[in-house]
Write a structure and sequence with these properties.
Elements: E1 5-10, H1 17-26, E2 35-40, H2 46-52, E3 57-61, H3 78-83, E4 88-91, H4 94-99, H5 104-116, E5 120-125, H6 133-145, E6 157-161, H7 175-191, E7 197-202, H8 210-214, E8 221-224, H9 231-239
Parallel strand pairs: 1-2, 1-8, 2-3, 3-4, 4-5, 5-6, 6-7, 7-8
Helix pairs in contact: 6-7
This protein binds 2-phosphoglycolic acid (PGA).
Residues 10, 162, 167-168, 202-205, 223-227 line the site of 2-phosphoglycolic acid.
Length: 240
């Protein structure tokens, strides 16, 4: 059997408590053989999701603190995320980098704390502006080289290629360009012996482009942002 294709639903701040409860009533429609589903709600929704999520669907957080404990008002630590059932956590999302000032140093610390707490980091990288694939590769190499990932050769990681300019706007890059970048990322991981690392794509994934994306042989999965808050769309994307 082929390895399961991964679908990460990044709900951002788009799914309310009431909608999350509605999700729990339709979640069985997302369960398919050979497909891995990871749902990433806001922090307060994590415990209720942990209690009621189908066994085949996994839970992820959208962020975590780069601190473990102390006077850091509003922060949530990786140990607590593990305790409420998170198996995954998104880090370094472009919205966190640009809107909340998250730096490569903070992302490096977050990755270390997640690994320490048995949570698989979903590390987001991607260029700010539409560029040539060669420019993108140079940019990604710079981003990745700062994150100390080669300390985690024995650990599971997910690297998410998310071009900032493609997020939220229905602007999918050319499939050939995505293919080139995903293959480059797979080679980067092989060169750095990151043998347990999976590569996913995120940015304007929807019902209209998922079939083309799944044809990229080297792609392990996708992150679905806006479309994942519309549960019928999410069901359609996962079933295609
Ligand atoms: P989008 O977001 O699907 O709305 O483009 C993807 C993401 O930001 O993870």
């Amino acid at each position: 059997m082929n390895k399961p294709f991964i679908y990460i639903a990044n709900w951002k701040l788009n799914v309310s408590y009431a909608q999350a409860q509605e999700f729990l009533t339709i979640q069985d429609n997302l369960v398919h053989t050979n497909k891995q589903i990871i749902v990433c709600p806001t922090f307060p929704l994590l415990p209720i999701m942990q209690q009621q999520l189908a066994e085949q669907i996994q839970l992820g957080a959208q962020n975590c603190s780069n601190f473990t404990k102390g006077s850091y008002t509003g922060e949530v630590d990786a140990q607590t995320l593990n305790a409420v059932g998170c198996a995954y956590c998104i880090v370094g999302h472009s919205e966190r980098r640009t809107l909340f000032g998250e730096t490569d140093e903070m992302i490096t610390q977050k990755v270390a704390l997640l690994i320490k707490n048995n949570i698989t980091p979903i590390v987001c990288v991607g260029e700010q502006h539409k560029s040539t694939t060669v420019q993108t590769q140079e940019y990604l190499a710079q981003q990745l080289n700062k994150l100390n990932l080669d300390s985690y050769k024995q650990n599971s990681l997910i690297i998410a290629y998310e071009p900032s300019w493609a997020i939220g706007g229905g602007k999918l890059p050319d499939i050939t360009d995505i293919t080139t970048i995903i293959e480059w990322l797979q080679n980067y991981c092989a060169d750095n012996q990151l043998i347990h690392t999976k590569i996913v794509y995120g940015g304007s994934v929807d019902e209209g482009n998922i079939v083309a994306l799944k044809q990229i042989a080297s792609l392990d999965g996708v992150i679905i942002g806006s479309a994942s808050a519309d549960f019928q769309k999410l069901i359609n994307i996962v079933s295609l």
